[in-house]
Amino acid sequence: VTSGAVWITGAGGFAGGWLRKCLAAAGRPAAALVRKQACERLAVPCTPLDLAQAALAAPGDPVADLEALPEPGALIHLAALSHPSDCERNPQRARLVNAVGVARFFEQCLQRWPELPILFVSSGQVYRQGPDPLAEDGPVEPRNVYAATKLQGEAVALGLRERGHPVLVVRPFNHTGPGQAARFALPSFALRLARIESEGGGRLPVGNLAAVRDFLHVREVVRAYLDLLPHVGATDVVNVCSGDGVRIGKLLEGLVARTRAPVEVIADSGRLRGGQDPGCLVGDPARLGRLLGRVPAFDPESLLDELMEDARRRVAAGEDLARA
Ligand SMILES: NC(=O)c1ccc[n+]([C@@H]2O[C@H](COP(=O)([O-])OP(=O)(O)OC[C@H]3O[C@@H](n4cnc5c(N)ncnc54)[C@H](OP(=O)(O)O)[C@@H]3O)[C@@H](O)[C@H]2O)c1
């Protein structure tokens, strides 16, 4: 872990961008495995990887040109079909990207570097929801295709761990921050509010505001991933969360309060995800705290400030909000 580049799949995505920034600030070398189109845009060594194609590759065929990258010190696997609606619409693709392709890719990496520490990024959505903070040894019960395929990916990772490879599964709960895609709840609110602000006022249609989630700033989440790398092998699964639940509606109120124009929030049944959307998902951060010696804290006020500022910039730059 101390030498070699940190290889990142999904390095062009939301968390991937923050992870690259974090590594650059620490002066640590990084390398990216992303889909072909994304390769040119990244300022780190890069090689193409498409997990859907990897899943369908002939047995024994390589799925990526790993020799094109600098020698790895660790691998952080972020790549996924990460939006629950995309997974619901295309369950077969979700399974290929989130589980089958992962198996093919990890096998190729471990064949060449059997001791490579791997951090597999799963999700807190795999748990059976409940009113108490969810701990790693508690029951899992995916309620949607996204969570089911994440759990299948975990099984791939943990199977390799059982074969003696250093693999750690992390279960991050919700994270957000500047740069997150418009279709996720908080950036969707912030972007549409920034547009309402630019138009002098308006209505904001919303879905389920009652859901309780354990939010962290994405900056804290990627920091936790890096700080966990020396602990890969120490345990099998660890939550990345704060342990504090907050109602989505409360965060929306904070964003509305920051909007410099009148806003009418209206219920829109078209924005509800029904039973597939868990009511309460709060993680137990005790194991994370034991490993890192600290539990990441959630600071909603500064997060909401950052989200609104980012949204104003994006709206001013003409971002398409069709999916917000
Ligand atoms: N954000 C959260 O609240 C949250 C919570 C729990 C877990 N997670 C997990 O954290 C990880 C990072 O999430 P994120 O928020 O950064 O999502 P994101 O922005 O959607 O990033 C996912 C990345 O995966 C890549 N990807 C998608 N399909 C691929 C394929 N077929 N082959 C190779 N790469 C592919 C995407 O590349 P393209 O840009 O080319 O599509 C994208 O860069 C994901 O595993 C997600 O499930 C996120």
Outline the structure in words.
By secondary structure, the chain is α/β, with parallel strands linked by helices. It has helices spanning 14-25, 36-39, 51-56, 84-89, 91-112, 145-162, 185-199, 218-228, 248-258, 286-292, 300-316; strands at residues 5-9, 30-34, 46-48, 72-77, 118-121, 167-172, 175-176, 202-206, 212-213, 216-217, 237-240, 246-247, 263-267, 280-281. Bound molecules: NADP nicotinamide-adenine-dinucleotide phosphate (NAP).
Give a summary of the structure in a few sentences:
With 324 residues, the chain is of the alpha/beta class. Helices cover 40% and strands 16% of the residues. The strands form four sheets. The protein has a seven-stranded parallel sheet with strand order 3-2-1-4-5-6-11, sandwiched between helices.
Largest sheet: spatial strand order: 3-2-1-4-5-6-11
Radius of gyration equals: 20 Å
The helix-and-strand class reads alpha/beta
**Total helix count?**
11
Distance N terminus to C terminus? 39 Å
**Distinct compounds present:** NADP nicotinamide-adenine-dinucleotide phosphate
> What's the count of strands?
14
Provide the residue-averaged pLDDT.
Answer: 96
Shape: globular
Q: Assess the beta-strand content as a share of residues.
A: 15-25%
Poorly predicted runs are none
Order of SSEs, N→C?
EHEHEHEHHEHEEHEEEHEEHEEHH
Which percent bin holds the helix content?
A: 25-40%
Report on the biggest sheet: 7 strands, parallel
Layout of helices and strands:
Layout: E1 5-9, H1 14-25, E2 30-34, H2 36-39, E3 46-48, H3 51-56, E4 72-77, H4 84-89, H5 91-112, E5 118-121, H6 145-162, E6 167-172, E7 175-176, H7 185-199, E8 202-206, E9 212-213, E10 216-217, H8 218-228, E11 237-240, E12 246-247, H9 248-258, E13 263-267, E14 280-281, H10 286-292, H11 300-316
The structure holds NADP nicotinamide-adenine-dinucleotide phosphate.
